[in-house]
Amino acid sequence: MSWFTQTLSGSVGKKLLMALTGLFLILFLVIHLAGNLQLLFNDGGKAFNLYATNMANNPLIKVVSYGNFFFILVHVIDGIILTMKNKAARNIRYKVAIKDSKSSWASKNMALLGIITLIFLIAHLKGFWYEFKFGAIPFATYDGVEYKDVFQIVQALFSDPIYAGFYVICMIFLALHLSHGFSSAFQSMGLNHKKYTPFISKLGLVYSILIPLGFASIPICMLLGIKF
């Protein structure tokens, strides 16, 4: 067994893998949100349709997208394995009241939050990515060129209060997951210093609020007919 395989198979290696894949996904969420906010432009969906077409046809974006799917699976599976190992290692339960614990609810339930996020992603991919690739999507014409009108698909889904509510609730779970995962990723990489850790923790808190809030605002605004 090579040193690389040995490292990844150990607890330290798995935590490092969790951190690296987590940081990649953190960056991806920012880019994804920037693209999705175009849904709120008051242009009949033109900007978003052009963006979606570019995302689907750009070779580099395709590679990043497939890599993203892979990293999501690795991140979730690695998290579940780590959680199971941690539970198995606890031969003696600590007799300490939960209220006295310094650990947050999110830090104690990262595996659960990760699974919920994965379930959301599967539903999300079914409703958007699968429909874009294989669904019967109408076309919109801009400057004499036809584009798949993905905006109509998104608008139809978010006009359903149940789906919009499901999306918003999942963003709350994502916020909880990020609230611990952001700073934890840096700590797992050894970037734990009394000078920088407080800043990273505050940055992580801001990120875990703003990014999910940005995503949640999209179905809410579309449901209410709010455009910018």
Q: How is this structure best described in words?
A:
This protein is mostly helical and 228 residues long. The protein has one domain. The chain contains 10 helices and 2 strands. The protein has a two-stranded antiparallel sheet with strand order 1-2. Strand 1 and strand 2 (145-148) form a beta hairpin. Helix 2 (11-36) crosses helix 9 and helix 4 (59-89) packs antiparallel against helix 6. It is elongated.
Any descriptors?
228 residues, mainly alpha, two-stranded antiparallel ribbon, 2 strands, elongated
- Percent strand: under 5%
Largest sheet strand order: 1-2
Instruction: Tell me the series of helices and strands, N- to C-terminal.
Output: HHHHHHHEEHHH
What integer value in Å does the Rg equal? 20 Å
Number of domains: 1
Share of helix, binned = over 70%
How is the main sheet built? 2 strands, antiparallel
The rough form would be described as elongated
N-to-C terminal Cα separation, in Å?
A: 56 Å
Number of strands: 2
Poorly predicted runs of 5 or more residues? 94-100
Query: What is the averaged pLDDT score?
Result: 82
Structural class, from secondary structure content?
mainly alpha
Number of helical runs? 10
Could you give a short description of this structure?
The chain has 228 residues and is mostly helical.
Write the layout of secondary structure elements.
Blueprint: H1 3-9, H2 11-36, H3 46-57, H4 59-89, H5 105-108, H6 110-127, H7 129-134, E1 139-142, E2 145-148, H8 150-158, H9 161-188, H10 197-224
Helix pairs in contact: 1-2, 2-4, 2-9, 2-10, 4-6, 6-9, 9-10
